[in-house]
Design brief:
By secondary structure, the protein is α/β, with parallel strands linked by helices. It has a single domain, classed as Vaccinia Virus protein VP39 (Rossmann fold, 3-Layer(aba) Sandwich), CATH 3.40.50.150. The protein is built from six helices and nine strands. The strands form two sheets. Strands 3-2-1-4-5-9-8 form a seven-stranded mixed beta sheet, sandwiched between helices. A two-stranded antiparallel sheet has the order 6-7. α4 links the parallel β2 and β3. The chain is globular, with a radius of gyration of 16 Å.
Length: about 210
Amino acid sequence: MSSIMNAEDVIPTYERAGPDWAKLRNNALMEKAWLDRMLAAAPRQTGRVRVLDLGCGSGKPIGTYLAERGATLTGVDATTSLTDLYATNLPRAEAIKADMRDLNLDRQFDAILAWDSFFHLSADDQRGMFATFAAHAAPRATLMFTSGHIAGEAIGDIAGHPVYHASLATDDYQTLLADHGFKLLRHIQEDPDCTGHTIWLAQFKTD
């Protein structure tokens, strides 16, 4: 395996290249239909959907859209460069610089989103994240994340910099969701209506 294929390189890569990546980010919001599904299924215990956005990036376009839909946002990113951009772009949101793998906010959310971020973790760290998802999920909270479509590792690109990706097998994600109290609502591999993303939408237990 190339030394580039290392999950620990992801955070420093985004720290350096994140602002350039944010400028190049497609703002067409191809994720809209999925974000609407996540919000529609989420509870509204405080009148607004409280969204925990893990690997929030700059907040554009996803955070901006969620805010426009009335969500209360908490964005978490492991880099200073992108956390600062998120705070600038969404001044009414809460911006937290933290590694999602170590996250313990001691509070719950109505929706948890890890879009194009969770798949940068190693396979073992991805498995460990399901306990973190559950710990931050309010009753009936929705969870949505993107993954690869088959098990393995790959190298992607952000603003001309190589970046690590990993995925578990479909059966592994299904088992991890069930074991941590999540019911699968919708799953599409390589969704042609969302630029080929493989997407998982689940809901936390009701009690």
